[in-house]
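From the pipeline queue, job 12 of 40. The input is one protein chain; the requested action is below.

Action: predict structure.
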Amino acid sequence: MKKGESGVGTLIIFIAMLLVAAIAAGVLIQTTGSLQNKALITGTQSKAQISTYIEALSLTGTNGSDSDVENISVLAKLSAGSDAIDFSETIITADTPSSTETFRKSNGSTAGFRVSYLQNGTDHKDGYLKFGDVAQIDFDLTNKFTEGKEVRIDIIPKIGIPTSIEMVMPDIVSQYRVHLYP
């Protein structure tokens, strides 16, 4: 009779160990599933952050009445492999040694930058820069770019790598439309 009682006790301990192991395995499986989802999301966001880039094709300015530039036009497209960029979440800064101006997309009632499309890609959507689109971004400077001044324009999307255009204004601005970059 003693052997049977100890066998039942061993069986109960064995079943308890199996239940504990099953619960631990369930927790591990749930944790790894959660970590896998987080890793996928993080990887997707990192890819978009690293690969999204606006390529500035050219930059021109309009000459004001006193040999300075006050209206800027940037011709831009997405680089290969980039995700779409929402212009309403994009900031443009124009820096000189003496001033900095910040521009957001104009909503009609506020001053800011304006976007017009010179070419529409196959998946075009107004307000976005998508693969195949060529956009012209226009903005008006309060602090005009004068002759010989160092200038830096940054186009900063919410997701992606900022685009920086650095140049020195020509020593003599004599034409109405001045090609500034490249």
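Job complete. Residues 1-51 form one domain.
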